[in-house]
């Protein structure tokens, strides 16, 4: 499985003093990220939003990528279309895929207020974008003649909520997706706030027969942000699957909250990691796992964040690394065994095959990846005790096998020792206090 980078955080261009230059700034970072093993970059929304400082989650003109003088700016917060296309070209040259952030639930920044004749209420629903594409009025939003009563989805803040059953809206969303995949050369689509509209819409956008500029038929990677518990996300995935045969993913919010507790809650019982209550536990090929993202303001992981990254980069799912953690918190720690870079290397070289929990108690968790033809497998140890190295003897699949520590961190960063299993596959694997250690089998030459 690949590794994704969320290539922004909340108001990143403002805080980095890169207003209107984020696409150019990312292009400069691409060679470093490619060398570190990042396979795809999730980019922020590319459309013109309601004001120059907006990070894009309140779209105004879906087809203005920073080239029309409207909403008090020409460029978006991130740049313009030519700069975005150049960024994706640089990513392509370094074999990094591009994932577009699609906001199709709501709009903002309308030009006029209208009275909706269905309920007599005034709303800001008259949009006359300068791109000339997808002008809209009250009938494009709820309530609409196409759906007088909103029968699916939730409202987002106080923004007008698009009615996808209106053919004009439906067609515009397909054109928006085709713009991303066929013209801009994105490889995948991340859909924002998928609670806000029917799962059928995601299914149909995923199922569409896209065609790249060279004539190739193309099926994009698709992931939805369904911020809920495991049962609700599972139900949403089933709804989408009923519309399309393609593999659709969901962000693993249930796992993320567990990982926050691992990092921040004293004496958190590590056995809770084994209860199956996450997307990756039940549907590993449908899970995008993460430790932090741009929406976690006020609920950030405050302590020992590397524990979370060690879990997602050794376990099941498609792990997503957060820009703020990697760069601003300096958790990449290149050329050391103690950071995200070392765990990305572990993910690519060793973290393949079935996952088996070998041991779990309140303070110690040990997991084995069985390996594949291309990846040798590993033993992962997570230690919750704050004052001592801890480990226990476990039975692995490997007999008389030497293991070397390949990545570790904690409140003591002393170099762990190599381990060797006996003829039945048993050995003790320790990890640092409030830390982790990844052991990989040493191949025989």
TrEMBL record:
SMART domains hit by this protein: Aamy (SM00642)
Where does the chain bind Ca(2+) 1?
Answer: 105
The active site of this protein is located at 192 (nucleophile), 225 (proton donor)
Domain spans labelled Glycosyl hydrolase family 13 catalytic: 2-347
Q: Which residues bind Ca(2+) 3 per the record?
A: 363
Q: Coiled-coil intervals in this record?
A: none
Q: Which GO biological process entries does UniProt record here?
A: carbohydrate metabolic process
In what ranges is there compositional bias, type Basic and acidic residues?
409-426
User: Keywords on this record?
Assistant: Calcium, Carbohydrate metabolism, Glycosidase, Hydrolase, Metal-binding
Q: If you read the UniProt record, what top EC class would you report for this enzyme, in one word? A: hydrolase
Q: Does the keyword Metal-binding apply?
A: yes
Q: Which family does it belong to?
A: Belongs to the glycosyl hydrolase 13 family.
UniProt-recorded name of the protein: Alpha-amylase
